[in-house]
Amino acid sequence: MGVSAPASRAMPRSFNTAGPCRPELHYMLPVLRRLPGVRQIIEGEGYFVLHAPRQVGKTTSLLALADELTSQGRYAAVLVSMEVGAAFATDVGLAELAILSAWQRAARHRLPVELQPPPWPDSAVGSRIGAALEAWASAIGRPLVVFLDEVDSLQGEVLVSVLRQLRDGYPQRPKGFPSSLALVGLRDVRDYKVSSGDRDRLGTASPFNIKVESFTLRDFTAAEVDTLYAQHTAETGQVFEPGALTRAFALTRGQPWLVNALARQLVQVVVPDTAVPITAADVERAKEILIERQDTHLDSLAERLREPRVRAIIEPMLAGTTPGTLPEDDVRFAIDLGLVRLSEGGGLEVANPIYREVIVRHLLVSPRAALPQIASTWLDADGRFDRGRLLDAFVGFWRQHGEVLQGAAPYQEVAPHLVLMAFLARVVNGGGSVEREYAIGRGRMDLRVTYRGETLAIEIKTWRTGDKKNPLKAGLAQIDEYLAGTGLETGWLVIFDQRKGQGSVAKRTRVEAATTPGGRGVAVVWG
Ligand SMILES: Nc1ncnc2c1ncn2[C@@H]1O[C@H](COP(=O)(O)OP(=O)(O)OP(=O)(O)O)[C@@H](O)[C@H]1O
Ligand SMILES: [Mg+2]
Fold it and tell me: What is the tally of helices (H) and strands (E) in the chain?
């Protein structure tokens, strides 16, 4: 080692994808702007709820707010977690001990000595949290502000006990109990799950009826994404082209973790040379890598698809049909998870294109695995992609395997769509792409297949029991519109006839030539 190493430029920060952000290590947006109104509640000695989906920045924001409040000298503010209590559903005493020991450690790291809690007092089971908060608030010379992270990870009796203890101590604030306190989690307090049943919520009988307000954290705006990415440009010189910024926002809709994860793939994997500007095409590649990686955040969202109430919402959205009346609770749950959101035009949609792709690919796993061996008959003798041959191959495949494979698909309402997509995935097999466009509530799904320099547009419709009208006419008008939008001359209109009593798939599958209202020739596939 040399004695005097040359002064080197500080290491640039990085895009964080693992846990809360730290300003010295990570590119970061200022957090307080995303928490308007919270300061006022704290100054008014209010108790409140902060709820937002996973990976939106709850912990990051409240850690920063606590630091700021404490360093300004008026409050002792700290974020502590309830998560370790989640291991106990019924043993209140053990949960309390685990939680309090975690608090002790957090306080030691985050607060100056004079603001740390005293040794926790002895207290009976079911009153230890309250007694600890009381001792803490009484022992220090400033009003205590406590943010309880991951509250809704607690279950059953433990959760109810904690909430009751908070309500019980509330009148003693600010001297004998935290002057302000926040419950932080995925859900608002009335939706906390209080028993192991799927639907047992606290509801209006909440023992935490002392909250004055519920806040949520929004995703980043397009301007915020630009600002965050500009921090990387400032530190490394690497430029994001305007088209790249637009595409990054379109794909993530500003979901904070996605915004960071996409950028991380971009600067570390896709364009590691900081002298090279980042383009929209690079963003597309980074998105692919990100989706393939199955990081925890995306994987755990996909896992949610197993839950019947989540499925009841997602399934019709994928099929492009308008969901019937959905239980309000279930809709709120899916929104709270961050999986769907209310679109600007009203109605539900999957929260962003990346989540949508993750969902579909997750649903495609088993249909793809169930696919039989298929010879590449869609290539001509020179290895060129031939649409006519592909059409023959699909019809043959559908006649022979369509029925059985649909039975194996996870979501029955979109089973034929999934099988067709699995087939197309086999066709392009890494050498092309199948892009999905959704037209929610418009009764269709549009696919664009790109393979060996050729593009094929496919529109899928279903004819269900109870639909009076043959969907052919509407379908021809819609594919006309779709083709016009994509600049393509021809495509397939696939109509899955799912009405009861239509005979076997093998018998009814056929192809007809048709002309759209705009005069385009298309192949209509009945399946
Ligand atoms: N202020 C910020 N600036 C930039 N990125 C942020 C910011 N806050 C959060 N993020 C991004 O969001 C991710 C998650 O942050 P954080 O852990 O604070 O969220 P959370 O809502 O507490 O998540 P969870 O519900 O899983 O606990 C970070 O890893 C980072 O990618
Ligand atoms: Mg968190």
Answer: 17, 13
